[in-house]
Amino acid sequence: MKIGRYSLNAFTIFLAGTIFFLPLLAAAEFSFRKPGGKGHSFTNYSWLLQQEGFLPALGTSLRLAVLSGALNLILMVPTMVVLNLKAKRYKSIVDFICILPLIIPVVSLAIGAQVSMPEFLQNTEYELVFFFVIVALPYTYRALDSAISAVDIKVLVEASRSLGATWFATIIKVIIPAIRSGIIGSLFLSFALAIGEFTLTSLLHWDTFPTWTVVAAQQNILGAIAISVFSFALAIFALTLVGILAARKKNQNLVLENEEVE
Amino acid sequence: MAKQRASSTLKLENVTRSFGTTVALDGLNLTVQPGELVALLGPSGCGKTTALRIVAGLETADSGSLLVNDVRYNDTAVNDRDMGMVFQAYSLFPNMTVAENIDYGLRARKMDLPKRMKQVRKMLQLVDLEEKSTRYPHQLSGGQQQRVALARALAIEPTVLLLDEPLSALDAQVRSQIREEIRAIQLELGITTLFVTHDQEEAMAIADRVGVMNKGKLEQIDKPTVLYNEPATPFVASFVGQANRLPATITGKGNVKVLHQKISLSRHSTDLRDGLPVEALIRPESITLTTENDDEATQGLLVSKSFLGPLTKLGVALEGLPIIHINSQSKDVKSLEIGDRISFKIVADEIMAQNV
Question: Structural domain tally of chain A?
Fold first, then answer.
């Protein structure tokens, strides 16, 4: 029955929403409590801003996250396109390789990957970018793969080429817009993962926002909650911004109105 | 509507193409005259799509030549070939409107904006979709999408138009409508066109000539009526139209004995020796109902009767033979019921036979 199904759907959405949002709302409320638990104020947030290392750690994390997102796209988009266009028979192998970061323990990954890292990167924080891309691989691969599978990319490419477009124009004007949802999803995932990654960063003794948070949280529990809420709001803001920029429609559509044709 | 640039001649000379051990094209020779629409017809895997893709530049030939107006095109890149192609699958760019899709090839040619807009409007008029210029592909029906794809392919004023089963994703009614539109536009523009399909009705209805392909080779290429009435090979006889396959014997002097009748053998049935058992191929409309008293009559049991408007298709069972199909005028068989015993005979002047 229709009504029954709608009610069930509404209940499911309500339940899922409650489970997702309730802890966040509780944490947000908690983060505004004054020390001692009575009344609300911005004390915990002002404490946060006054902490030494807050802005450098945040800056580092944002920088690494942006670079991770960029490297992930540079690496994965062409790979996935070529894989789907020219080398479909190797797809299962790539599929397997991209799942490996989920299976390999982070410790092994950290040591193994660091040893194989070029020397000039080994002693800079930018080595983390490569680790973040590796760790994000299982998710970014799936996001791109499902977007590419949803369109007949081979036909689109052939149509574009047969109409006289170069490979470059085909990639920029046809492929990327056609798989935009996958690219944005992939970017979201790699960005979010990079900004919140703790284990690898801690193992390799680098200071980023998550490692700084752990140290800071030991001094002030309410401040720690404020940090969590702040990180969450920051991630949502950054991702929304990317989403809005990516979804912005170009304003140079071919408009044919009021044009005279002989 | 002005004609496209001077129509071109398309030639494939001894073209071969293999995929691993599978031979897709085995020395294909084909000429499409300026302004002509040639349909390549054949079962799946016969090589027709490979041939089309080689012309488009999406596949390369192992050997042989592809010539457009006697200029060799084998090594010309796909984006430099100036060929318009409509694909089987919906191939419109999903991020672009109808007008932008049509404009795509013109932009790739770096044409200036006023010329592009004029051409896009011309194409929209041609496919009668002026009202939909700002729609996106997902807002169009399948038929409309293929009309846009046709407009997009024609906008670049291609030397040759290539149609790769463009109607196969559409439902029957739309398919027949778009088929007629494609033919009308093709005649209006006088553009040389190669059309690939596995649907014989489609090929027969639209093409000036139809080439029947089998195992990478062109079995016969001719006007649809010639293909149907004078098939050059048993494969063409059985693939184009329907044919009953009945056991028969060569009786000498160019005759074949089938059921209780002796009938002349088609001139195309060669390599058949006297006395040998063969398989006769007889069209359903070459069999007619008769009376029991007719010396040439064969009797059978009516097991099926399908009303097809002016014609009714009868299925007659005879012991030891496959069901024989007969196409009769509906008004002549109104009174027949399934289970009736009926008499029939072959009325063809000549029939085709093949070795068993």
Answer: 1
Residue A87 is assigned to a structural domain of this protein: yes
Find chain A residues with C-beta within 8 A of B94's C-beta: 151, 177-178
A100: which residues sit within 8 A by CB, 6+ positions away?
A137
Residue B137: its chain A contacts at CB < 8 A? none
> Which residues of B fall within a CB distance of 8 Å from A177?
93-96
Answer whether residue A96 is part of any domain. yes
What string of DSSP letters covers chain A? Answer: -HHHHHHHHHHHHHHHHHHHHHHHHHHHHHHTBPTTSSSB-SHHHHHHHHSTTHHHHHHHHHHHHHHHHHHHHHHHHHHHHHHHHT-GGGHHHHHHHHHHHHHS-HHHHHHHHHHHS-HHHHTSTTHHHHHHHHHHHHHHHHHHHHHHHHTTHHHHHHHHHHTT--HHHHIIIIIHHHTHHHHHHHHHHHHHHHHH--HHHHHTT---HHHHHHHHHTT-HHHHHHHHHHHHHHHHHHHHHHHHHHHPPPS-----TT----
CB contact under 8 A, B78 and A161: yes
Please give the radius of gyration of chain B, using alpha carbons only, rounded to the nearest integer: 24
**Which residue type sits at B29?**
N
Query: Distance between CA atoms of B136 and B241, rounded to whole angstroms?
Result: 40
- List Cβ<8 Å contacts ≥24 apart for B202-205: B202/B39, B202/B167, B202/B175, B203/B39, B203/B40, B203/B41, B204/B228, B204/B240, B205/B176, B205/B179
Substitution target in A89, A148, A163, A166 with the highest count of B β-carbons within 10 Å is A163
> What domain range is A249 assigned to?
52-261
Q: Which of B108, B120, B122 sits opposite A164 (nearest CB)?
A: B108
Chosen from B93, B101, B126, B131 to mutate, greatest number of chain A CBs within 10 A:
B93
Q: What is the pTM of this model?
A: 0.79
| Residue B343 contacts residue B327 (beta carbons within 8 Å) | no
**CA-closest candidate to residue B30, choices B191, B187, B264, B192:** B192
Residue B16: band (very low, low, confident or very high) from pLDDT cuts 50, 70, 90:
very high
Q: Note the pLDDT tens digit of each residue in A3-54.
A: 677 888 899 999 999 998 898 888 888 888 887 777 888 888 888 888 888 8
Out of A164, A166, A254, closest to residue B103 by CB: A254
pLDDT digits (tens, 9 = 90+) for B69-128: 999 999 999 999 989 999 988 899 998 999 999 999 999 999 999 999 999 999 999 888
CATH number, domain at A110? 1.10.3720.10
Position A29 in a domain: no
Q: Whats the size of chain B, residue-wise?
A: 356
Residue A43 lies in a domain: no
Determine which of B87, B125, B132, B150 to mutate to test the interface with A (most A C-beta atoms within 10 Å).
Answer: B87
- Residues of chain A with Cβ-Cβ distance to B121 below 8 Å are 256, 259, 261
